[in-house]
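User: quick one, sequence for these tokens?
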């Protein structure tokens, strides 16, 4: 939709009986924040502001004002992207939802806003006559309600009046379970303009994967953001819980967000592939950039303590940034494809990663590799497991945090203020984690220490 403020927009609201508009933006976690505005005020172009710190709100609801946010807690302006105007499918009354960008009051994009970070990276490509293309694959679990968060997540009851017990990977029967949720969710995705490609039941019990159609990075990130919002809201309506944690259940499959990336030039040609179908130098340099710079930004792809439980040697969750053709053990996989579809699949990000930030970090690293003509390693042969080369990425939260905090390259690629604010907020989250005593500690330390 391409409405602008004025009578046409008000007519649209009147047509659909809309009285309120969700003015939302993704925070640091990729969670929707914002304000509800009367539709008439929105249609008239009323200015909307919110505190500058909210784009960096911690997952706990806390803020880190030191060292980046001033005590005065100034405002930023929320500016609607009218192209994202949609009817909100989760609302019990007719309501619209619109994505917003955060701008400082002097007109500069807010350095802490995830959508701004991604737009800045995409502009670097545009300045060189290049267009990045991205397609995410998003995994998540549907579980029974979990009112007692000290207890593990459990599979919901299905048509046979019992929970799924496993061995259902890629099953169409199990994809047909929970049909009322899926029917409404599918309809919601269509209404939101989310272009889902394929749907599968993944390896975990009631774990699913949805592939989004490749496209413009910002538009695709918007779709991933709204996908997660819709999944959570509609799951609740059906007595379910949509969980995007990287490792929600001990001993079960983790959930990832693989990112397929390619780059086309001004003539529409994929720069990763030569006319004869061979790999170009730019292809190798893009991989080289990912290998050189992604490790310092691991905290973007694995943002929480829980995220690091997903990286298990010997599994298909990558433990390094080796690359290979159609090799799912590598952090960077090159799927079999025709020349026009030659792409690099970054398998590092968990489903818990903010899609705007994960796409921004990956694209920024790849472009830096092309600009600096960085070499890549040799590919891992088909049939070989890259885990044998060691776990070279940060294995837990604290090393990843320290690596990003002190990284000159991360600050260069994502912005000085952003990295300072992001790492400060992540410190607040980690401190909150340390204050809580968990099940492992009670189980082993209680009786034996």
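Assistant:
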């Amino acid at each position: 939709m391409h409405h602008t403020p004025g009578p046409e927009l008000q007519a649209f609201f009147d047509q659909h009986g809309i009285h309120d508009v969700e003015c939302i933006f993704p925070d640091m976690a990729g969670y929707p924040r914002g304000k509800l505005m009367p539709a008439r005020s929105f249609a008239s172009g009323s200015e909307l502001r919110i505190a500058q710190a909210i784009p960096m709100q911690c997952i706990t609801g806390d803020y880190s004002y030191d060292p980046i946010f001033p005590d005065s807690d100034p405002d930023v302006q929320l500016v609607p992207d009218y192209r994202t105007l949609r009817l909100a499918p989760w609302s019990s009354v007719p309501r619209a939802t619109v994505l917003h960008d955060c701008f400082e009051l002097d007109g500069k994009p807010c350095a802490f806003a995830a959508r701004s970070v991604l737009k800045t990276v995409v502009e670097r490509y545009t300045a060189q006559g290049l267009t990045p293309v991205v397609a995410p694959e998003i995994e998540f679990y549907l579980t029974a309600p979990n009112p007692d968060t000290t207890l593990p997540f459990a599979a919901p009851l299905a048509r046979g009046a019992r929970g799924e017990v496993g061995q259902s990977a890629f099953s169409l029967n199990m994809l047909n379970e929970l049909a009322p949720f899926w029917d409404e969710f599918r309809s919601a995705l269509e209404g939101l303009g989310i272009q889902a490609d394929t749907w599968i039941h993944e390896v975990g019990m009631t774990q699913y994967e949805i592939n989004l159609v490749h496209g413009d990075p910002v538009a695709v990130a918007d779709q991933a953001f709204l996908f997660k919002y819709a999944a959570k809201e509609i799951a609740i309506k059906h007595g379910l819980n949509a969980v995007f944690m990287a490792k929600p259940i001990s001993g079960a499959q983790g959930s990832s967000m693989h990112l397929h990336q390619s780059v086309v030039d001004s003539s529409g040609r994929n720069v990763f592939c030569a006319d004869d179908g061979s790999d170009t130098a730019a292809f190798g340099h893009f991989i080289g950039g990912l290998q050189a710079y992604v490790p310092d930004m691991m905290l973007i792809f694995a943002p929480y303590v829980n995220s690091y439980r997903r990286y298990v040697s010997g599994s298909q969750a990558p433990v390094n940034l080796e690359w290979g053709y159609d090799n799912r053990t590598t952090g960077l996989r090159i799927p079999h494809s025709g020349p026009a579809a030659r792409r690099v699949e970054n398998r590092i990000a968990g489903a818990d990663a903010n899609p705007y930030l994960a796409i921004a970090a990956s694209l920024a690293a790849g472009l830096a590799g092309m600009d600096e003509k960085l070499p890549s390693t040799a590919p891992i042969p088909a049939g070989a497991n890259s885990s044998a080369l060691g776990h070279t990425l940060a294995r837990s939260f604290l090393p990843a945090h320290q690596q990003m905090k002190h990284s000159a390259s991360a600050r260069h690629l994502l912005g000085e203020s952003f990295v300072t604010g992001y790492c400060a907020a992540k410190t607040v989250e980690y401190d909150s984690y340390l204050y809580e005593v968990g099940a492992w500690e009670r189980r082993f330390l209680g009786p034996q220490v």
